[in-house]
Specification:
By secondary structure, this protein is an alpha/beta fold. It has helices at 17-33, 47-52, 72-85, 97-110, 213-226, 235-239, 270-273, 305-315, and strands at 3-7, 10-11, 14-15, 36-43, 58-63, 88-94, 113-124, 127-134, 139-143, 150-154, 169-172, 202-206, 230-233, 260-264, 281-286, 299-302. The protein binds flavin-adenine dinucleotide.
Length: 316
């Protein structure tokens, strides 16, 4: 039977949540296509393969010391070996830094089409149609590939995590793993990574309306400090690198329930609201009176955040 294969992702020997989400996706897609779900795990030993087997019925393990840390050279070689040794119809890859780094190269090596940044799929007449975001989620488009096989990358948070408890099989697959052309030196934990915004009682969150990194820091970070809270952000702010991913609120970020959540220049997209709607008091500052954030706000201030926030700070 053809397989829908998840390529597992690990860092420091820990399987990512995105992998578990794709286990759920693979099961649904395989069932819609009359295929079977499976995962491929690449590591220095088979411990992670055994772990992933709790989430999906069949796991293929490529074991090599060179697979202890991620590299696109080694991952493409390992994934190609699994796809060629097994009857694989589709390959699902997390749309993460690592996944986006190697997925296109893998598709090239397999000679198949790729659809990136997907968040949904449906099967129409045996063909998979992927829905993907474009223009930061403002537009969704549908795509399918013309080739027999496909590679698809999926956004984090597009599916729920699969629950553990299964007892899948683990099969070793031999592969010739090349020396990676990039040399891994060390992991450096970011300072911001240690922030846990989920514990904050007060959160000041900035969105794309803050315009640029310096303004985000100047307005949002200082406002948060002034009122003894933590600063946070919507996804475009994190994607643009204005603040750290540990501070992202929403479906693919953190879920927060502070006493006070001040949303500044945030439109109120459903994926953002999913992460903060449980806040006790929500204050929205937005210059667009029609912004959806006002639908869930306890208090709304229609105005330019660059005028409103300094005015509040002055009063404080
Ligand atoms: C699978 C998936 C997962 C996602 N996960 C997340 C997630 O975890 N978190 C998240 O946030 N998004 C997430 N998104 C993206 C989400 O769909 C929206 O694109 C995003 O939340 C929009 O961010 P924003 O409100 O900052 O930007 P925009 O939607 O561009 O809104 C900017 C707002 O700022 C206002 N504004 C502009 N200038 C000013 C000013 N001077 N003063 C006051 N207001 C101003 C505008 O009126 C506008 O309302 C996800 C999307 C998908 C598909």
């Amino acid at each position: 039977m053809a397989r829908i294969l998840v390529i597992a992702e690990q860092r420091n020997g820990k399987i990512s949540d995105a992998t578990l989400e794709l286990c759920k996706a693979a099961k649904a897609l395989a069932s819609a296509m009359g295929a079977s779900p499976a995962a491929a795990v690449f590591y220095k030993n088979d411990s992670l393969a055994k772990e992933v087997a709790q989430y999906i019925p069949e796991v293929f393990a490529v074991v090599d010391p060179k697979l202890e840390v991620y590299s696109s050279d080694t991952y493409v070689a390992a994934a190609k070996a699994v796809v060629e040794a097994q009857d694989v119809k589709g390959v699902l890859v997390p749309h993460t830094y690592d996944g986006t780094d190697y997925a296109a190269k893998l598709a090239l090596n397999l000679g198949c089409g790729i659809v990136t940044n997907c968040n949904k799929f449906e099967v129409q007449g045996g063909a998979v149609v992927f829905t993907r975001n474009t223009y930061n989620g403002k537009i969704q488009e549908q795509r399918s590939v013309k080739t027999d096989k496909f590679v698809a990358t999926f956004e984090k948070g597009a599916f729920e995590k699969e629950a553990s408890g299964g007892a899948g099989s683990v099969t070793a697959v031999s592969a010739s793993i090349p020396e990676p052309r990039r040399k891994f030196k060390q992991f450096v934990e970011t300072m911001a990574g240690s922030v846990d915004i989920t514990q904050a009682k007060i959160i000041v969150s900035g969105g794309r309306g803050t315009k640029e990194k310096d303004k985000y820091n100047d307005i949002i970070v200082n406002f948060a400090k002034k009122i003894g809270g933590e600063y946070a952000a919507s996804r475009p702010v994190v994607d643009a690198g204005w603040t750290d991913a540990a501070r992202q609120v929403g479906q693919s970020g953190k879920t927060v329930t502070p006493d006070l959540y001040i949303a500044c220049g945030i439109s109120g997209a459903i994926q953002h609201v999913a992460g903060m709607k449980g806040s006790k008091v929500i204050v929205a500052i937005n210059k667009d009176p029609e912004a959806p954030i006002f639908n869930i706000a306890t208090y709304g201030i229609v105005g330019d955040l660059f005028e409103v926030i300094p005015a509040i700070m002055e009063q404080l």
